[in-house]
Design brief:
alpha+beta, 1 helix, four-stranded antiparallel beta sheet, 7 strands, Immunoglobulin-like
Length: 130
């Protein structure tokens, strides 16, 4: 009986050791994933953080900042309430830095959507034209 208990204890010790290693690897993996997502999110939202629009003298001006790093695809469009694209201010790759895009408002009336899209984010803002 003593030999069986001893074997059982060794088996349990091995199982506990394997379990502890698995838990540690799981925790490390979660932390690494969270750190990666955090850095990914900071890059993703830095484009949005400095996104501003203004209408002045019949012109819509949109200012935004592309974060440091490799160039990224950016698309900026004005969309009517019915879903028609009224203007495309930007579509294509942009280098890091501060940028401004403009378009003539013309006879646009009512409320429209200003859509900003990059490789890893999408932002919609309402703009009212009088």
């Amino acid at each position: 009986m003593t030999e069986q208990v001893y074997e059982w204890l060794i088996t349990m010790r091995s199982a506990l050791l394997v379990s502890a290693v698995c838990v540690l690897l799981y925790i490390l993996g979660k932390r690494m994933t969270m750190a990666f997502r955090k850095s990914e999110t900071q890059v993703a939202f830095s484009l949005v953080d400095e996104f501003q629009s203004a209408i002045q003298d019949g012109t819509l001006n949109v200012s935004f900042h592309v974060p440091k790093g490799p160039p990224m695809d950016v698309e900026i469009s004005v969309i009517s309430n019915q879903g028609a694209i009224l203007a495309s201010l930007q579509k294509g790759e942009m280098s890091p830095g501060h940028h401004t895009r403009s378009c003539e408002v013309g006879d646009w009336k009512g409320r429209c959507v200003l859509l900003l899209r990059s490789e890893n984010q999408r932002l919609e803002r309402f703009v009212s034209f009088e």
